[in-house]
Amino acid sequence: VLGVVPETPAVEHRILTPIGVRGTVSEIREGDYTVEDIVAEVRTPEGEEKPVTLMQRWPVRVPRPYKARLPSVEPLITGQRVIDSFFPVAKGGTAAIPGGFGTGKTVTLHQLAKWSDADIIIYVGCGERGNEMADVITHFPSLEDPRTGKTLIERSLFIANVSNLPVSAREASIYMGITIAEYYRDQGYDVAVMADSTSRWAEALRDISGRLEEIPAEGGYPAYLAERIAEFYERSGRVVTLGSGQRIGSVTIMGAVSPPGGDFSEPVTSITLRFVGTLWALDTELAFRRHFPAINWLMSFSRYTDLLSEYWSKYDPEWSYFRERALSLLEEASKIEETARIVGEKALPDEQRLVLLFSEIVREGFLVQHAYHEVDTFCEPEKQAAMLRFMVEFYDMVEPLIRGRVPADKIREMPSLVEVMRLKERRGVEWVNKVREMVEGDVRRLAEQYGLAF
């Protein structure tokens, strides 16, 4: 790093020596310059003077080199409970968001761009509708960044390539975004890239391939589609950058995929799933029920859970256990719901009705998140861990009542249940303890009413 320029009040732009230039700095200048002016000179071992400008030129299809690759051990905190607690992505990791029309891919990416704790946000609108990009660009300047207190747009970059632009520009826009991300990564920043959507990029590859008269593969896409998708996602990572010192930066890639008709078996989606570490599968049925983010907990996955468990153990040493327990109960509830559709919930045994009640509490009180609510739009990691533990412990508290022949309807009628569902709207962790005391009081009263030991 030769010097710094305050790019915005929130971002310090670090002037890097061009890649491949070695030697000693023979001259460095201070003042006001344009990006093409020479600000420094480097004398190479051969005695040649190499000029350095404020900007660098780099072919966008070639990954920028780095010194060493590091394991991804820190999560990208997004403030979205279903993502951070159930299907986290690591800094330097990759994630895909496939979903049919109207399931909320763009809105989910907007939320991630607003609240993720990356230093730099790069949003690539690749082949999207012009009104969506206009909404982002007009909306972001009015949002306050919770990390810096400045406006959010001061650490954001937008590459707008809307659907009426040439396909060659659409194909290049994805590479442009990832190369800019690598440039800021080399400065020591954590960068998050939102690509919306990679399906439009793949369609551009298909159009260009057709005009070049190449032999098509499945769906008319070129035979090298898997290679191109792999090359794109492989440019993510947490690395030690080139140069002196130990600068560590990361690039996290989150790509939206738009499968026609929500068919996840189509080529772009099926190939993408082979190369990403996290899948946030959007469900049309959940979206139609106004459940947002409409991430299906049965179809989604994260390969970073074990790597990130050490981070989450700072907030709750048993986080992994409660996460797995909640997911297993949700999976069990989905099987019970199939039976309930046939015979009705009232015909089910109370043990199964309790599982359905737990599923309802987790869905409505934990997974559903209101993007426009002052508190619920962002949930801190410590509050997420406390809420997850409490909801699983709620199930463990009331299960002995069911075994003691207390009807499930009595548990559903507990006054404290309303506060459990509204916990997400309360600020801070202390409310979790208050609601826990309310639940324990209700459970004690039910136990005394039915002559059970508590």
Radius of gyration, CA atoms, in whole angstroms: 25 Å
CATH superfamily assignment of the largest domain?
P-loop containing nucleotide triphosphate hydrolases
Element-level helix/strand string: EEEEEEHEHEHEHEHHEEHEHEHHHHHHH
What is the strand tally? 14
Q: Based on Cα principal axes, name the global outline.
A: globular
CATH-defined topology of the largest domain? Rossmann fold
Overall pLDDT:
92
Please indicate the count of domains.
3
Amino-to-carboxy terminus distance = 65 Å
CATH architecture of the largest domain: 3-Layer(aba) Sandwich
In percent, how helical is the residue content?
A: 40-55%
Strand fraction = 15-25%
User: Tell me, what is the CATH class of the largest domain?
Assistant: Alpha Beta
> Largest sheet, described in full?
9 strands, mixed
Which class do the helix and strand fractions yield?
alpha/beta
Number of helices: 15
Sequence stretches where pLDDT stays below 50 over 5 or more residues: none
Give me the secondary-structure topology.
Elements: E1 3-6, E2 12-15, E3 24-28, E4 38-43, E5 49-53, E6 68-70, H1 81-86, E7 94-98, H2 105-115, E8 120-128, H3 130-139, E9 156-162, H4 167-186, E10 190-196, H5 198-211, H6 225-233, E11 237-240, E12 248-257, H7 267-272, E13 278-279, H8 284-288, E14 301-302, H9 305-312, H10 319-343, H11 350-367, H12 381-403, H13 408-412, H14 416-421, H15 430-449
Helix pairs in contact: 4-5, 10-11, 10-12, 11-12, 12-15
